[in-house]
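Full entry
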Amino acid sequence: MNAPARLTMSFDRYIEWEKQQERKHELVDGVITLMAGGTAAHNRVCRNVLLSLQLRLRGKPCEPFGSDMKVRIPQGNVRYPDVTVDCGKPKPSDLWAAEPRVIIEVLSPSTEWFDQTQKLEEYQSIPSVMHVAFLSQNRPFGRVWTRAGSAWTSVDADGAGAALAFSAIETDLPLSEAYDGVEFAPLEG
């Protein structure tokens, strides 16, 4: 069986090409990558995070966006994080976050390692990003990475009573809100 051809293009060509597509694609090292859909649990967590941050940030200078907002990586990749908090006042026609401050990914079993390694490194390379957070879709657990000068530190939040702290936008995210209505599969063992 032959492998499908890889579609490659420049950033500018990708932006114009993707405007004509029905589905979302990321640009990774010049290669077009089709985005996959998520589970109901993944979508519930994303929705809950977006709603919680919207309520907390109402009337403040930063705004949360869902997974349709692109984030441009300095080395040229383009990603679609699950939630992005933008503090740069994007214009209505903008296709990517003007000044992403917080990026949140809900982990999927198939992408968990990749998200927490390559994507983490990419997100940390964006000068305006101060926090990168990862949330499990299998249990109430999150990890937030926070920029401290040129270094990054991480703090885990475990259990429904815990919260992720986002000091750069002066708010937190209670895991009880992030996981509201999410049913977890029983643990095997």
Q: What stands out?
A: The helical segments are 11-18, 40-57, 112-124, 175-178.
